[in-house]
Amino acid sequence: MKITTWNINGVKARLEGALAYLREASPDVICFQEIKSVDENFPRLEFEDAGYNVVTHGQKGFNGVAILSKTPLEDVTPRLPGDDTDEHARYLEATIATQTGAVRVASIYLPNGNPIGTEKFIYKQAWMRRLYVRMQMLRDEEMPVVLAGDFNIIPEPQDAKRPAAWVNDALFQPESRSFYREYLNAGFTDALRACHPEPDVYTFWDYQAGAFQKNDGIRIDHLLLSPQAADRLVAAGVDRFTRAWEKPSDHVPVWVDLAL
DNA sequence: ATGGTCGATCGTCGA
Q: CB of A11 under 7 A from strand B?
């Protein structure tokens, strides 16, 4: 079972590219972030025609997440618990039946948090703390869980071509990296790093300054597996070829293959 | 040092 995450940076701008990717890669499940669309304007029919069930949690102008699955999505719950005043559309969970049972999947768009020293970084830290609480709950349910999304965290220096360029960025702050380590220490597995210990594994290249041509990237899109999912880990990878397409997203799809 | 790129939306924010 192939589960993919992709920050598409606007579903309207990326519709043709996203449909082309689904035809080519044919993931069983794909989690989108930054759909930048309200639910009513999401091109649901186009994705349904491509063979996917669709659930969205959108908002006007920015943010917004979605989960698409070849098989039905059940127990769909938007919003990360822990702050009823948080209006950002950044989190969506759903359950998908498998041959051996079920897998719980979350599409996550963790706050960017820049610039540091502002409310935005405070909000990011609170959000990371709320996610940690939710992850402990999910882990304790002892079922396969996949947290898939744009975490906006560069976990280690090896996850950036030029780590020194990010030392004042919210994505590489000690607080951000510390939360990521807490997620791993809570029992979750970084699927991509587990399968690819080599250097130069990136998922995002800025649109500016020819970053992709220079492979000046960072690894910020992650797939975290609960123990029951990690037990079934077969492979993981980055589909960086989409970054060379016309009108690319600045992120590329990251996938995991689980024997579920 | 500045501006450099996108998307949503239509002046400006978010990334």
A: yes
Please, how many CA atoms are within 13 Å of residue A234, restricted to the half-sphere of its CB?
A: 9
Provide the residue type at A235 as one letter: A
Mean pLDDT for all residues in chain A: 98
Question: Which residues of A are the active-site residues?
Answer: 109, 150
Å from the A246 CA to the B7 C1': 15
The pLDDT tens digits of the residues spanning A115-141 come to 999 999 999 999 999 999 999 999 999
CA distances (Å), A201 to each of A12, A182, A206, in order? Answer: 28, 22, 15
Enumerate the β-bridge partners of residue A106.
A93, A147
Domain ranges for chain A: 2-258
Task: Answer for A112: CB within 7 Å of strand B.
Answer: yes
If one counts every other C-beta atom within 10 angstroms of the C-beta of residue A164, the result is: 9
Three-state DSSP class for A220?
A: coil
DSSP collapsed to 3 states, A62-75: CCCEEEEECCCEEE
Structural contact between residues A155 and A177, judged by C-beta atoms closer than 8 angstroms: yes
A122 touches strand B (CB under 7 A): no
Distance A34 CA to B10 C1' (A): 20
Which CATH superfamily groups domain A2-258?
A: Endonuclease/exonuclease/phosphatase (3.60.10.10)
Mean of the pLDDT values across residues A152-157?
98
Find and list the nucleotides of strand B having atoms within 7 Å of a protein beta carbon.
Answer: 3-9, 14-15
Nearest-nucleotide field for A36 (CA, C1'): B8
